[in-house]
Design brief:
The protein has one helix at 59-66; strands spanning 2-9, 15-21, 36-43, 50-51, 56-57, 69-70. The chain has one helix and six strands. It is mostly beta strands. The protein is globular, with a radius of gyration of 11 Å. The strands form two sheets. A four-stranded antiparallel beta sheet has the order 3-1-2-6. A two-stranded antiparallel sheet has the order 4-5.
């Protein structure tokens, strides 16, 4: 599967990441923040569960449930 990755600055030089299936718009509930494009058409295995570089857990589950996946800041 291919996803687009967006990022936004958090405190202490950390970033949050948002993964959206390729070519899909950022869902409305997530557009209230200024997301910047990090990567386009990023290839991940179908059913992938973890994106370590972006601190995203439960990738496939989040996308299936919400249409996107986001970094868990508590895990950083």
């Amino acid at each position: 599967m291919r996803i687009d990755i967006y990022r936004r600055a958090e405190h202490d030089g950390k970033f949050s990441y948002l993964a959206v299936p390729e070519s899909k718009a950022i869902p409305e509930e997530a557009t209230n923040t200024d997301w910047e494009v990090e990567k386009r058409a990023f290839e991940v295995e179908d059913g992938a569960n973890h994106l370590a570089d972006f601190s995203i857990e439960h990738l496939s589950e989040q996308i299936a449930e919400k249409g996107y996946a986001v970094t868990a800041l508590a895990a950083q």
